[in-house]
Amino acid sequence: MAAAASELLTGWCLFGLALLAILIFCWVYVRKYQSRRESEVISTITAIFALAVALISSALLPVDIFLVSYMKNQNGTFKDWADANVSRQIEDTVLYGYYTLYSIILFCVFLWIPFVYFYYEEKAEDDGNTCSQVKTALKYTLGFITICAVLLLIGAFVPLDIPNKKNSTEWEKVKLLFEEFGSSHGLSALSFSISSLTVIGMLAAITYTAYGMSALPLNLIKGTTSAAYERLENTEDIEEVEQHLLRIKSKCRDGRPLSSRDRRTLQQLEERLRTLRRRERHLESIEKSWWTKFCKAIRPLKIVWGVFFIIVALLFTVSLFLSNLDKALHSAGFDSGFIILGTNLTNPLNMMLPVLQTVFPLDYILITTIVMYFIFTSMAGIRNMGIWFFWIRLYKIRRGKTRPQALLFLCMILLLIVLHTSYMIYSLAPQYVMYGSQKYLVQSNKTIDVQPRNVTFVSKDCDADAPEDQCIVTRTYLFLHKFWFFSAAYYFGNWAFIAVFLVGLIVSCCKGKKSVIEGEVDDDDSDMSDDELSAYYH
Asked: Poorest-confidence range of 103-107, 314-318, 363-367, 403-407?
């Protein structure tokens, strides 16, 4: 018992270290992208806190799986200390952890982040008194609070009965699991609200993460164009524009006014010249910076990382495809949300994670790596595409030059994507997320001349055929599948994710090298500061 308590304490200590690492990462990440000129304390704290809460909720997943797995021995028997009461206490502890984190996420998404965002929007448009700005921000935030209240009410009273079109024993087991999970209105309301946000996160992952999974590795492999070569081209462009300007201005030397067409052309050329000169300053700054020289030195390492990332992306895609194909072939269908207990078509990650789980914390490290991989690929997608509302680009995300409002948008998107990551990991390794490394005992009869000689028991990985009291399902799995229609949406979303990744892979392969200042200097920039990029590279 003492040894068990010691190992459990070690697990929670590692979780505490993970929390500290998450906070440090979020602080560095937000500080890297926020504008040096327009940084605000409240928006910085909000962004760091929101992103940290999302990452902490994903960090609870391997803890949940470790705890249900640790209650059983490798031979399939329960450990001496793991009686029904202890098991229930452990499960409840994890459940309360999810309650707390998901409640904080709802608070961030529907109250805190919208309020801070609208506050700075009002501050940018009106330099009036603070009280007026707070009132206006609260007025707009009230709409988000109303949406949250509607989601909670729908979740509390929406019927969970599944259309009884399938006579499936497996689905009966799923319903029994949900009954064990709890039927309180509060739990249902929270689960429905979080599932709604997870669907939005799924759409963000399809848009940004799927594309970023192809763009990030290929950009690392191809590299960027030379700063010296770009400066030479830019100088030629400046000379060409200046000559064009002289030709137009020469038309009015004798006092004749310019035509309206020439005036428009003159204005466009002057704007173009300002942009080219700004590019010249940035290219000169980058060419002389120590960071550029360092990047040249580690160019071979970047290529290695790019090859590694594309292999990982293909591994994820294959695993996701096999998992979805398994659901298409062996689940009870759309009416059950394509839910299956166990796996029929295994995939590489589903085989790897249960093996690593037996040596804590190897699976924890892999899960953390997967989450961070999704973060970096999502960020690559957002940086390449920007933040859009349908066909209108709202913000650009740049290192050291992201406005407070854009930073809040960025962390909101990343929060929703990380929220969806738990389901992505389930899709990649369903057996692992449901049962971890749990096994159960199955009776095996050895016979000679049709007469039983002895009766033995063999251990088997937990699956849909396991007795109800022999395998413990993680709280994560039940949270993700409490509403069958969300599970159906996730299923179709996975197919869309695969399709967007393949399209993004083709597009990224066809593109040439990126500019060394890709996205840093554009004609329509309104939030630029020439000093910010120089400060970043020097």
From this structure: 363-367
Are residues 315 and 248 located together in one domain of the fold?
no
Q: Does residue 513 contact residue 278 with C-beta atoms inside 8 Å?
A: no
The dihedral built from the CA positions of residue 390, 393, 394 and 399, taken in this order, carries a sign that is positive
Three-state secondary structure along 206-255? HHHHHHHHHHHHHHHHHCECCHHHHHHHHHHHHHHHHHHHHHHHHHHCCC
Beta bridge partners of 389: 392
For the chain, what percent of residues have pLDDT higher than 70? 82
pLDDT in tens, 123-161: 766 666 778 788 888 888 898 889 888 888 887 776 655
**CA-CA distance, 283 to 210, in Å (whole number)?**
31
pLDDT classification of 526: cutoffs 50, 70, 90: very low
In terms of domains, do 193 and 272 share one? Answer: no
pLDDT at position 498 is 94
The reply to whether 325 and 407 lie within a common domain is yes
**Helix residue ranges per DSSP H, 75-127:** 84-107, 113-125
**CB distance 60 to 97 below 8 Å:** yes
Contact between 484 and 168 under an 8 Å Cβ cutoff? The reply is no
In a shared domain, residues 160 and 272: no
If one counts the domains in the chain, the total is 2
Residues 107, 73 share a domain = yes
- Residue 91 to residues 339, 361, 385, 462, 474, Cα–Cα distance (Å): 22, 20, 42, 18, 8
At a CB cut-off of 8 Å and minimum separation 6, what does 366 contact? 352, 353, 356
Helix (H, G, I), strand (E, B) or coil at 395: strand
Asked if 242 and 278 sit in the same domain, the reply is yes
The three-class DSSP label of residue 172 is: helix
Structural domain containing residue 99: 34-229+294-434+479-510
Residue 24 burial by CB count (10 A; 0-12/13-18/19+): exposed, middle or buried?
A: exposed
Backbone φ and ψ of 166, nearest 5°: -115, 130
